[in-house]
Design a protein that fits this description.
Blueprint lengths: L1 H34 L5 E4 L13 E2 L2 E5 L7 E5 L2 H12 L14 E4 L7 H4 L3 H6 L5 E4 L3 E3 L4 E11 L2 E12 L2 E12 L1
Parallel strand pairs: 1-5
Antiparallel strand pairs: 2-3, 3-4, 6-8, 7-8, 8-9, 9-10
Amino acid sequence: MLKTSLILTLLFQALSGAAQLFSYAELVRDAICSIRDEPVITYVDSSLGYYQPFSYFARKGRVEGHLQLRAPEKTAMVFTRAELAAIDHQMASAPPRLWPLQLFANSVRIPTDSTHVLPHYMRTTEFARNRQYRYYYHLSAPVSIRNGSVVIFRMAEMIHHSAGYDFLFIYVCEQQGWKRRMTIRAGAW
């Protein structure tokens, strides 16, 4: 009896983890499509860390960003000090993750090592013909607050191994499902 309940508990945890990954994959796809319409999304196999605390973007608890990157319309969200501290702690202690193959439909996972060969590949005739892997994405592990109803993650859109844009995305779970609440331009290099 104890063995059966232990197996059921482990099975439930595995299935809920898979469900969370599936939801996160949907959010990532939506975030990428909000920036650029890619027929095939290429992402790096390992998770990206957070290099600055989320509280860096808050002014008196208020965080500002855009609903759509291509539109000038701004939006804001207010976070308590405790929430900002919890987000900063989760970001600082997020363990590295290995993303699965085919995180979502029409996606390609590439190893981190291969990002250093991409500039050479981009000079080939094959690349000029089909522009495959022109942009690729580094994804962070998501952090959540408010009982999992607010999810924040970092995404770097890379053009070469050392050129790209850094974004933070905030999604809120509403009655209709997950909705992108804000995109923050976190930097470029």
